[in-house]
UniProtKB/TrEMBL annotation:
Species, as recorded: Erythrocercus mccallii
Region (Disordered): 1-37
Keyword set includes Transferase: no
Keyword Cell inner membrane belongs to the record: no
Pfam families noted in UniProt: FGF
Name used for this protein in its record: Fibroblast growth factor
Alphabetized UniProt keyword annotations: Developmental protein, Differentiation, Mitogen
Length: 134
């Protein structure tokens, strides 16, 4: 159903474009040199071009290079992982602590960087499985 509606809209748009092309004036130098509808069309087209060309583009705000998903890391034992301001890592039962929010940033295939939202410190795991911050 949605595909039929979409194809119908595309067909209507294409037909409108074709009508505009067929209604376009093909200019031929007339011996009387009077301003005809073709000259009016040119004026209309150029005024539209100037109008559209004069629009100022909005500048996008510079986005941070590393974007990710802000989430909480929760353990099966019922603790939220928390990264304190001094760099210590522990668990807490508090759900509304701002130190439990982490930014998961995709770095590569199956590799993410974990950054504390409040502290801006990164969380990592060494080869023995111990967590540390940087």
């Amino acid at each position: 159903m949605a595909a039929a509606i979409a194809s119908s809209l595309i067909r209507q748009k294409r037909q409108a474009r074709e009508r505009e092309k067929s209604n376009a004036c093909k200019c031929v130098n007339s011996p009387s040199k009077s301003k005809g509808s073709c000259d009016k069309n040119k004026l209309n087209v150029f005024s539209r071009v100037k109008l559209f060309g004069s629009k100022k583009r909005r500048r996008r705000r510079p986005e941070p290079q590393l974007k990710g998903i802000v989430t909480k890391l929760y353990s099966r034992q019922g603790y939220h992982l928390q990264l304190q301001a001094d760099g210590t890592i522990d668990g807490t039962k508090e759900e509304d602590s701002s130190y439990t929010l982490f930014n998961l940033i995709p770095v590569g295939l199956r590799v993410v960087a974990i950054q504390g939202v409040q502290t801006k410190l990164y969380l990592a795991m060494n080869s023995e499985g111990y967590l540390y911050t940087s």
